[in-house]
Design goal:
The strands form two sheets. A two-stranded parallel ribbon has the order 1-2. It is mostly helical. It is globular and about 75 Å long. Strand 3 and strand 4 form a beta hairpin. Helix 2 packs parallel to helix 5 and helix 6 crosses helix 7. It is built from 19 helices and four strands.
Amino acid sequence: LILLDSLLQEFSRTVRRTGIMPGGRVKTMRSSSHIFAIIFIQIIIVVLFALFVRYDPKTAQRSPNSVEDGDGQMKDTYPMFQDVHVMIFLGFGFLMTFLKKYGLSAVSLNLICSALAIEVFTLVYGFFHVHCENPNVAYGSSECDSIWPYIDVNLVTMISADFATAAVLISFGVVLGVTSPLQLIVMTVIETTIFVVNEIIGKDFIGAVDAGDTIFVHVFGAYFGLAVVRVLYNPEHAKSDKEGSSYSSDLFSLVGTIFLWMFWPSFNGGGAATGDAQQRAVINTYYSLCSCVMAAFAFSALVTPSKKFSTEHLQNATLAGGVAVGTCADMMLTPGGSLAIGSLAGILSVCGFQYIQPFLLKNLKIHDSCGVNNLHGMPGLLGGLISVLVAGIASPASYDKFSGGMDAGNKSLTEIFPALANGGTAPGQALSQFLAIVVTLAMALVGGLITGLIMRAVGKIEGMEGEDFYNDDWNIDELEAKEELVVAEELKGLMDDWKNSKFGGNPVVVNETSILLTE
């Protein structure tokens, strides 16, 4: 029996290492549907781009003012875009590598979901904002000679697409390690579409303002993902021994945290009006993040039984200040106000990890892989509610104290709150902010539940279960060989260290057997 067990274990290791089954068959996923889905969707996107998408004639094609306008956009927008782009692909990607057996999948799937979300956003948002062939004429007007609609793309389109991608990646963090590539493709397409609709409703119809997209990105992405994972709930999600982290995986995740922390001022400032409003957004985010770090470290040690810092808290709660301050980043918070918001967000996030997340899993059967509710959900709601307060007390005395003699159209108050220039009031703007939060929550929860049902049906074609959860082997080829190579290199390093050491003045004789026995 012992011999049989050894043979079976060796057979299993060989299959995992080489991917070769008896008879020469190669071990693959149970379904290849994700391959056909990727190819099919990309063909459709290429065709739609070819038919409808063009360079913006005002900034990216030679026209009377294209050199000046294009150059201005490059100087004003491209630096912010670069920072946000780093956040999307490096920051979010490495933040999700905390799972000890899922790091390669986390970064890889982050890449494909981001690329797909950018393409889908460009099309969906573009179809809601089509242009006439003549860029100086509104599409559909009597002066527009062309029937064919055009989607104009420029740097603003690119940074807006990255903001939408952030919402998808936030939801991806909730279902990290428990969904197949096909399910993630479905989620990305549907969520990006609903995101665009919700943002248009919130900004164009309700009249809410959200410079750092706290409401429309963080709150939406968090609760969309939580609704999805509730539908996909499986008791084995929380029982897998692969869900934990290791020293190296936590270290890589902290690298992602640092990237996000460094560039978050650009995320919140990228959507603000250029000039003093954008500078306020950067300043407020900068100080809110610093205050958040101090509060997160203090409360992490406070709530941890050992009174030490929790790596999970440091990876996530230190960023909550950037989330909470986003909606009102360009408003007159004052530097002291931004510090207060950052502190509250850090405390709220740590308490979320320590108390709220276990409650959600135990009582509501919501398994949140990355603790997204604690970093994006609750701090996002806090930031949205603070924007209700700040908008409600907005006045010319606070926003235009030093703008005497300037034209009414150049006043800061009406630049931040455009509705006030058309007869709106501060209490009315506060109501708009609150309604945007309510509508966003409704769209996220309902959209997430429907998307979750679709993903559960797709899971019958290509879904993960049991040993597949949090396992790179589900997505990455020849993983066993890579792992064995790492172990062999580490063993060789240990042997070299021993060979160079001495015991009692005599060189130590070491070989593979002795090093293994010692270990």
